[in-house]
Backbone:
């Protein structure tokens, strides 16, 4: 898993009320494919693979919001991604139970991104 110490430090300092949930989403994404990396970009933990995959929207305090920068390019068969912006789509998680129930859908979206970038 490509955990970045810079992201660990950022999350520790941020003291977000949903840090446990953010950490779980982070673990799922990084464990899905070893090619996926993370960094801090736009003052937010951001996942990367041959471009920006998604960033946490850290101003959300009652749920975890993950913005997929080019989510409109993905098949999204699971329906995890919502929104109708030209490019971006959002995944929202309300608690740890919700994250676990959406784990396979999140993994699928990450695999779809990697596959899209590798073709």
Residues:
């Amino acid at each position: 898993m490509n955990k970045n110490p810079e992201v660990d430090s950022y999350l520790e300092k941020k003291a977000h009320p949903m840090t446990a949930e953010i950490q779980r989403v982070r673990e799922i994404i990084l464990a899905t494919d070893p090619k996926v990396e993370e960094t801090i970009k736009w003052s937010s933990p951001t996942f990367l693979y041959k471009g920006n995959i998604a960033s946490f929207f850290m101003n959300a305090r009652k749920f975890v919001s993950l913005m997929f920068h080019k989510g409109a390019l993905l098949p999204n068969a699971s329906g995890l991604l919502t929104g109708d912006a030209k490019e971006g789509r959002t995944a929202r998680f309300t608690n740890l139970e919700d994250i676990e129930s959406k784990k396979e859908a999140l993994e699928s979206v990450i695999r779809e991104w990697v596959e899209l970038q590798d073709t």
In short: The helical segments are 5-14, 19-32, 96-101, 103-118. Strands lie at 37-41, 44-48, 52-56, 64-68, 89-93. The first strand starts at residue 37 and ends at 41. Residues 5-118 form a domain with the Aspartate Aminotransferase, domain 1 fold (CATH 3.90.1150.200).
